[in-house]
Amino acid sequence: MRYDDLIQPDNGQPATPIQLIEKSGFESWLASQADAIRTAVQAQKFEGNTGDFAILPGEKPKDWSVVAGVADAKKLAIWSLAKLSDILPEGCYRLTDIDAGDAMVGWMLGQYRYQEYLSEPKLTGARILLVKEPGRIAGSALQATATALVRDLVNRPAADMGPNALEAETRRVAKSYRAEVAVIGGDALESGFPLIHAVGKAAMREHAPRLIELHWGDDRHPRVAIVGKGITFDSGGLDIKPASGMRIMKKDMGGAAHALALAEMIMAAHLPVRLHLLIAAAENSISGNALRPGDVIKSRKGITVEIDNTDAEGRLVLADALAKAVEDKASLIIDFATLTGAARTALGPDLPAMFSNQDEVAEGLLVASKTVQDPVWRMPLWAPYSEMLDSDIADTANSGGSFAGAVTAALFMQKFISDDTAWVHLDTFAWRPTSKPGRPKGGEALGLRAVFRYLTDTYPVR
């Protein structure tokens, strides 16, 4: 689907009007309407509640219009129009007396469908919104397209979304922007990226692990590294997950999906940065050579890691990728990872946990998240908890136990970041357990638009 086709400039072409009202103004609005409209409204039990709508008759059968309830009719929230775009008949629509603004993104994503595996896809025509602010169409379509990419990649079953498929998707994106891709995979990882190798070696024959790198941009621009956790399926390893915990572990490459989508947004917007995308891709499987509890692995950075828990594997693959980003002198590193259940316990499925070693960067990201209505919540890099990662025989353990699990995971990763490198870590769920308008159950982009807005604010196109 081309999302920019769903929003088009309003040049006065025929379209069905959509009138938006708030609950507080419903009674006065209803009193001013003709008898036929009041009857239609009452028959459809429309009372101006947010998210509800009614079809209003006109003088002729083709002259019908729509009235919909919103929380704020003067400034639309991003998902205000998502339900309408999902269920209205195909055709062209225009808002009366208001610009769509941020709600353009919701209008587009209200029409998102994941139907790759349906033998009979449900075909529906497009609902096109006409807007008087065409300058915002491209930016809104970019956000919708990137969100849809994350959803598509996360929704795809692990059998079809292994490390090789992540590589193929990266090469596809790179080709569109003449970016360069380099891949180190299989046993070649053992000497340079030993943690990635250790996690992925149990699936070596069918789904060989790899570090996927994409380079784009001018060397004269600030170097920004985007790092993604690409665990394409997580069995938990020898510390195996229960069946209930494994059911949606196809989503454990959600960090990589976010990273790739963000990289494409950066390139499409021509941000003045030297982009370095790193995706650490592996399947955390079980076999005779699987990583064991108690093993000690020497990381790329030289830090030795004792494996306390093989199900804390995401931070291991990220550690080697982060070390590479630091070596290449990134001025800013941002990583995305579906890292801990602790973050979900603390903040729920909708709110990514955000950690940063620099207050200024964290504050800028929080402002950006509010601006684009893509919330993140800052969590502390609480240094005293580092002792939970102590090991008797190695420089560090990979797991800090059950207390403050999201914090200790971030503290583990911070060991691989230099003190003078700005770093942001987003522990994101990448999944929606229930459906909401514009946000169906399944793979989801959380924190993606917030980070992109922060980057556009920090590195504006001149």
UniProtKB/TrEMBL annotation:
Pfam family, one: Peptidase_M17_N_1
Organism this protein belongs to: Sphingorhabdus contaminans
UniProt name for this protein: Leucyl aminopeptidase family protein
CC terms in the record's Gene Ontology section: cytoplasm
Domain Cytosol aminopeptidase: 309-316
Family: Belongs to the peptidase M17 family.
GO biological process, one term: proteolysis
Signal peptide extent: none
The entry's keywords: Aminopeptidase, Hydrolase, Manganese, Protease
InterPro entries assigned: Leucine_aapep/pepB, Macro_dom-like, Peptidase_M17_C, Peptidase_M17_N_1
GO terms of molecular function: manganese ion binding; metalloaminopeptidase activity
